[in-house]
Amino acid sequence: GDELLAKLARDATFFVRAHESNEMQPTLAISHAGVSVVMAQAQPRREKRWSEWASDKVLCLLDPLDGVYNYLAQQRCNLDDTWEGKIYRVLAGNPAKHDL
């Protein structure tokens, strides 16, 4: 029992490594007792994920008064400088700019 646990503890490793390509891609590798798992981030940039969500349009729908004001004043809905835009930028990265 104790020998097996000691062997498993010796064989277990945990490390994070990054492969160099065009961008740093963080990779998480976990190995324990002959079983290993390697995980990589599917989309390396938060900005790309944000742009796929078309989040600027979603923000305009969530706060229609600011959205209408920005559309009339700037001919586009851009809520980056509002508190909503700042919260979403922190959570999901830099928003993509979309014209309505």
From TrEMBL:
Q: From what superkingdom does this record's organism come? A: Bacteria
InterPro entries tied to this protein: ConA-like_dom_sf (IPR013320), Exotox-A_bind (IPR015185)
Domain Exotoxin A binding positions: 1-100
What this protein is called in its record is Exotoxin A
Record the organism: Pseudomonas aeruginosa
* Taxonomic placement: Bacteria, Pseudomonadati, Pseudomonadota, Gammaproteobacteria, Pseudomonadales
Gene it is expressed from: eta
